[in-house]
Structure formats: structure tokens, C-alpha cells
Design a protein that fits this description.
The strands form two sheets. This protein has a four-stranded antiparallel β-sheet. Strands 4-5 form a two-stranded antiparallel sheet. It has five helices and six strands; from the N terminus they run αβααββββααβ. With 191 residues, the chain is an alpha+beta fold.
Length: 191
């Protein structure tokens, strides 16, 4: 207490602290239930994780607005990749541009030992939805192509914001592994 100096014990179940595992877990379960019951269609999904190299993480640390741009890069990459993976056109609307995946994106900014590590978790439909309500499942694919699209989008975004130079892009492209990574989980069947 600021007035008398007495210390008060705050229970972790106060729902006001994000450090409490039980409070946080309860919110995660409630969000998952809402997502399954209200948002997601009963179609196959996949879990993706998009990561950026350590050398670029500092730009996101000092300019947190870039995290929403990173999210947009992940979505744009996934949309382009999914439209290529599901080549059939919508018979009613015509054209691949009407085919889009559905996705929920969560930005996470910490990694091991609470070090700053901005990355994206995406729960995405395993295929594309069309304007007429039709869904087509994606065939098997290699996530390496998705990683290349994501890397290009992030470089382009950071260059347009004046955060990096072409020299840094060229240096990272010459490395055997640029530090970008896209993890693609197994297909999750509706249950």
C-alpha cells in the first residue's frame, strides 16, 4: 500500500496477470473453444509457424508497429502459396483470385528464456475457400516454396520502410541458410 507501506498478497487467479500459468491457460482454452465453435469451418486445417532471422529481429523490437506488417507478410505469402497449390478455378466465379485460404494469425514475440523472437503462428485451412462456399483441399506440398515467398515479402516490406538496405538483403541471400523458416504441421482433420 502506498499510504501505509503494508504489502498485500495478490493471488495468481486474479485474471489480471499474464504471468500466471493457470489464468493464462484458462484464457487459452476459452479462446480455443470459441474459435472451434464460432469461427472455424469443419474442414482440414494446418498449423504454420513463420520465423525471421536473428539479424532482423532488432527492427521489430524497436518498432513494434512492424509486427502487424510481419503478420501481413505471413498472410500474403500463405494466400499466394495456397492459390498456387490449389490450381483449380472456381467454376462459378472463375479465376484463381477468388480462391482464398482462411487463417487465424497470432503474433508471438518471445522465444526460449523469454528472449525477443518475433514469429507468427497461423492456423490455416488446408486448401482454399471459394465465394460460393465450396472448399478444395490442397494437395501435398513442400513448405520451402512458402518460405521463399515469405522471405521475399519481409525483405520488400523492410526495404520499403527504410529499415534495411539492399546490401543486407544480398548478404542474407548469399548465406546457405538465410535464417527464415516456415514450419508446416500435419493436416488436422475436423473432429
Amino acid at each position: 500500500c502506498d499510504d501505509c507501506g503494508h504489502e498485500y498478497l495478490l493471488a495468481f487467479s486474479c485474471k489480471r496477470r499474464h504471468f500466471c500459468p493457470s489464468c493464462h491457460q484458462k484464457r487459452v482454452v476459452e479462446f480455443g473453444e470459441w474459435l472451434c465453435e464460432e469461427v472455424l469451418k469443419a474442414i482440414p486445417h494446418r498449423h504454420f509457424v513463420f520465423s525471421v532471422p536473428k539479424i532482423l529481429r532488432r527492427y521489430f523490437l524497436y518498432d513494434r508497429k512492424l509486427l502487424s506488417d510481419l503478420s501481413r507478410c505471413g498472410w500474403d505469402s500463405l494466400k499466394i502459396f495456397s492459390q498456387e497449390a490449389v490450381p483449380e478455378e472456381d467454376p462459378v466465379l472463375g479465376g484463381k483470385e477468388s480462391a482464398v485460404p482462411g487463417a487465424v494469425i497470432a503474433i508471438q514475440s518471445f522465444g526460449d528464456f523469454l528472449g525477443f523472437n518475433p514469429h507468427l503462428h497461423l492456423l490455416c485451412t488446408d486448401g482454399c475457400l471459394y465465394g460460393n462456399g465450396m472448399f478444395r483441399v490442397a494437395p501435398r506440398f513442400e513448405a520451402k516454396g512458402l518460405e521463399e515467398i515469405f522471405r521475399h515479402k519481409v525483405f520488400r516490406m523492410l526495404l520499403s520502410k527504410g529499415k534495411i538496405t539492399e546490401d543486407l538483403v544480398n548478404m542474407l541471400m548469399k548465406l546457405r541458410h538465410s535464417g527464415f523458416n516456415v514450419f508446416c504441421g500435419p493436416r488436422i482433420q475436423p473432429g
